[in-house]
Amino acid sequence: MGTRNPEMTPFSSSGPLVGSYDESSPPPSIPLPQSTSIPPRFPAPPQSASQFPQQQFPTIPQQKFPTIPQQQFPSIPPPQFPQQQFPTIPHQQVPHQQFPHQPFPAMPNQPAPYAPPLQGQPYAPPLQGQPYAPPPLQRQPYAPPPLHGQPSGPPLAANIQALMEDFSSLSVGSIPGSIEPGVDLKALPRPLDADIHPKSLSDMYPMNCNPRYLRLTTSGIPSSQSLVSRWHLPLGAVVCPLAQVPDGEEVPIINFASTGIIRCRRCRTYVNPYVTFTDAGRKWRCNMCSLLNDVPGDYFAHLDATGRRIDLDQRPELTQGSVEFVAPTEYMVRPPMPPLYFFLIDVSVSAVRSGMIEVVAKTIRSCLDKLPGFPRTQIGFATFDSTIHFYNLKSSLTQPQMMVVSDLDDIFVPLPDDLLVNLSESRNVVEAFLDSLPSMFQDNVNVESALGPALKAALMLMSQLGGKLLIFQNTLPSFGVGRLKLRGDDPRVYGTDKEHMLRIPEDPLYKQMAAEFTKFQIGVDVYAFSDKYTDIASLGTLAKYTGGQVYYYPGFQSAIHGEKLKHELARDLTRETAWESVMRVRCGKGVRFSSYHGNFMLRSTDLLALPAVDCDKAFAMQLSLEDTLLTTQTVYFQVALLYTASCGERRIRVHTAAAPVVTDLAEMYRQADTGAIVSLLSRLAIEKTLSSKLEDARNSLQLRITKALKEYRNLYSVQHRLGGRIIYPESLKFLLLYGLSLYKSTPLRGGYPDVALDERCAAGFTMMTLSVEKLLKLLYPSLIRIDEHLLKTTDHEDIESSKRLPLAASSLDSRGLYIYDDGFRVVVWFGRVLAPDIAMNLLGPECAAELSKVSLGKRDNEMSRKMVKIVEKLRESEPSYYKLCHLVRQGEQPREGFLLLMNLVEDPMGGTNGYVDWVLQVHRQVQQNP
Known about the structure:
Layout: H1 156-160, E1 168-170, E2 173-174, E3 181-182, H2 200-204, E4 214-216, E5 221-222, H3 225-230, E6 236-239, E7 253-254, E8 276-278, E9 283-285, E10 292-294, E11 322-326, E12 340-346, H4 349-354, H5 356-367, E13 378-384, E14 388-392, E15 401-405, H6 416-419, E16 421-422, H7 427-440, H8 451-462, E17 467-473, H9 509-519, E18 522-528, H10 536-544, E19 549-552, H11 558-574, E20 577-587, E21 591-597, E22 601-602, E23 607-614, E24 619-625, E25 634-644, E26 650-662, H12 665-670, H13 674-688, H14 694-717, E27 726-728, H15 735-743, H16 757-767, H17 772-779, E28 782-785, H18 787-791, E29 817-821, E30 825-830, H19 836-843, H20 862-877, E31 884-889, H21 895-899, H22 915-927
């Protein structure tokens, strides 16, 4: 690569910008073998059914379960569903009796064979009707290569040579009273303890960065191309470079001052815990490319008898996987920019009526003292309908001056020097403007929206410095360049080859503008509010290619959604932001990252341009092998984010991790990370919906999971007669359930009648940026019973430690009170026969009213205070998004259906499989011959 500093080039404002859209598209899906396939979740209306040809697959046999007696309650008319049928919830929680605890016989025509015990292992006879599986071999933990002259441990090959490993399995047998195959519902694995980071890699390499910053889909890096071809799951990583650290922890900041930052002169790797020192401390060997580098005189230290530097305890960069270097002037091509916020606000009649303008103005005003970068922070405003209104906020004025530009074909910026001002100098004028903004347009009846010209004007204003552009859009852009048309209400397009066109920008202007914004270090956040079609597919492109974010508030009304907008806008404005950033992930010899997925612009093959990035953004990337065979025992990864801090300091945040190279596919499975795999699968599936039908994206997802489990089964099918057992690695025991949840998620599920087009696109943009933990919470939310908790006299309020329940209607008891939390909203479900005093304490006299019109406020009793504290604690635990609290009563349709029942992913719904049927369907496909 030479000695030229690669991180300096990206800050040049010249040179072409290459979008990542085409590079990051996943490979075309392979058609499924003839088997069952999950149809869309909700059936299409009868009159258009013929317009959606469906591939015919064999029917899944339905399970027959013994009838369970139910307690009789007073007759209540059944709920009416508009289109889809939801599962019936029993009036009383019945003890688990559907699947008696007894071994299931093997599948027909597959008698349980005898397998002799392993040498040195006691023999235990198989259970009646189940094939015998021998006890697992005892595996030795892997020892990483020595560091800094430490003595070597046993070789890697000796530890992972054996094929056999622990694996988990489910018995498939006949259910009593039925000849159909089935599995024990209670035996199915569920992530009821939320996301758990794999510990194996941290144990092997304790100096790795924390998994919150970097998670590999498998910690066992395949040694050969042939192994990669047999690993049918994504091979790659999920990176969250600025992930929030828990209280009490911090990333050490290191200033080398006159020494300069220590880097490899060939591959430009930053010094890290895995470099080794030789020649009495005068040279250091790069862990990435093995080059010997000279140690600068100011950095020299003697080595002890084991080859370690004697000052190791004073050098965080040599002992910790995450550090932050203060960058000297050679890392800058211009002085560090100040934090800059420019607000572009739609003031058309729909925005005025919704109350959005008032909430935005009040929130910005309340955050002025908390904006990062004081006293350097810059701020500016423009509003638009069919014209564009600029505001002179010069500090010498007592009131802001409005200037209107109506010629949108030849847009220009009046008084460019006074429209972006220093906040500390013009504070009084800014406050006067925000106080008067809501009343300024209260009588506006203009229905047009000239967003395109407004974007061009904002670019002219911000191109000198860069910064963050916040767009508040309340209607479909309809005036000037970038005007859009209604295209989301045509059901005939679904199921055809043109279906994906609805989910990509209609007008190329938006991607072109995003490229221009990135070029000038401008990040864009889009706040969209309309309950009518707004073309989020086009608007969201502005955020996608600038490292920004899409916030969607369908049917916004300030009385209902005001708190959510206030909280999320305040967090957007006040969280620590990395400005004018670029990110590169370096790898050891023989491997490289080949595709990237998330919100960014790809500047070169491996450099991500991020005009503004924060702790809530994560990026996924796929790994490929450059060589046929890896010759090293360890592969190293290093994430480097070069950015400007709000204080004006140029910094480089560096995360380093090591992972072992393995020669055994079973070892890759053993070290797999379900969370990282699901994060990559979700991004690949969402990107596939931008070039293919929804059905193709779902089938591709199912096929990858099926192939992976089939390959794993083949590892053991020779020496173990598995019969009808479903086997899977312990590390991937939740993969099937998360795959089903992703299959039923908002961006992928169903078709035209199931999810509004804007909602589908907005959910896709959101999921593309989520960290592993937040994504898994969204896919499999928590469901907790809280009425028993509220009745306790103790003050213990830790609801998060309460037992989470499976997401199935059978978990709900009509006598109970439950809380559902997916990280974005909270739903409180009142059972039909919940004790009246609980409802009265929580809701007061309104407890008998329709709950859509009732809010959960603090009332003058202990139970109400407890309940409010529980909701507040759930909100504080995940501050990225504000969780609106929805109340719903059992049988209150259609609200109960779309707020809760359709999110119970373990139940069959609208033609899609439940958890048991999904497992059986994948199992059948796994057992099929290739």
